[in-house]
């Protein structure tokens, strides 16, 4: 029988970095029965001036063959008392150590200049990462700024590794002009993307909660140019939108002023579209003279879309719906051993008015799964079979063993 999978999570809010590292290492190592194969470290932007000290301090007390991590707007984790916390706007450090028997763990760091052209062969991407396509790998990515080429990398991974699953997030820079930090074994990087590929005896299942609810009815793009919607159902888009807003309640009309988004249908063959069937994208602006609407993604004629609203209640309802769907689809007899959470810095206490909402909702449906993660500047997860960079989203990656012997 194979060794058991183990996922030991530590979370600390000690204000001194030395004390935080000692505390986190002590907590995490005490929960493991053997040496770890992978370490994940997340540090809050309250420690911005001390990012360069983190890895030397960790390496004094911890030996792990692969260690990746990054800075975030806050840190999420299961504390030593077993409760899950989202530590925002305060010093926080999260450390996860995983024992992954029969799993190949391959780390990598890539910068935008190294990425192949999107019309390159799959081999170009495979050679870049040094990750074979079989058995199908699962990816965890942590990226720097948008100039890291993360959107091209996601397209390349989907192309070169069909059937793979990718989750992750964008690191957040600190205050006062600080820069985001990416941690990779002994190295601190400020640009590019670091990641780890997990192949073999592991399954990575995802929940992507985009925090919106649809309003109105689905419409079809009858004319578009790149990211600009020029016609909806042969009508002027801005007139369609104004008519829709006029039909809303007063509360919804107020909400639409700041929280209106567009959902792009991901399955062109599905006739009956519901919440969760859309990729949510922001509205960049409108052209009153042409009546056009610009969004943060390309559109094409024939594509269906629906306007969406986002608020605290919609976010809770959406995550609960996703959790309920996941729970129904769970394979009996195969329990998860750990989970990752990448949540937008625009969620959390700022959205809900109280802490720990998303993580506690996760634990209500999926109890006893150690949870680790951070607040990001963009969240990575699949929708409709392709992987995207999201905003205002909580992405969960749930780890199981392929053999079910965990």
Walk me through the structure.
Residues 35-236 form the FIST domain. Pfam families: FIST, FIST_C. Keywords: Cell membrane, Membrane, Transmembrane, Transmembrane helix. This is FIST C-terminal domain-containing protein. It is a multi-pass membrane protein. The chain has 406 residues and is α+β, with helices and mostly antiparallel strands. The protein contains 9 helices and 25 strands. A 6-stranded mixed β-sheet has the order 1-6-2-3-10-11, covered by helices on one side. A 6-stranded mixed β-sheet has the order 5-4-22-21-25-13, covered by helices on one side. Strand 23 (379-383) and strand 24 form a beta hairpin. It is globular, with a radius of gyration of 21 Å.
Please state how the strands of the largest beta sheet are arranged side by side: 1-6-2-3-10-11
The poorly predicted ranges are: none
Given the C-alpha coordinates, what overall shape results? globular
* Biggest beta-sheet profile: 6 strands, mixed
Membrane topology: Multi-pass membrane protein
Pfam family, one: FIST_C
Domain FIST: 35-236
Protein name: FIST C-terminal domain-containing protein
In short:
The protein is α+β, with helices and mostly antiparallel strands and 406 residues long. It has helices at 17-30, 51-61, 122-129, 150-160, 237-246, 250-259, 312-329, 348-352, 357-365; strands at residues 6-12, 38-44, 67-72, 74-78, 84-88, 93-99, 103-110, 138-143, 165-170, 182-184, 187-189, 193-200, 203-209, 213-214, 219-225, 228-232, 260-265, 278-287, 292-295, 304-309, 338-344, 371-376, 379-383, 386-390, 394-400.
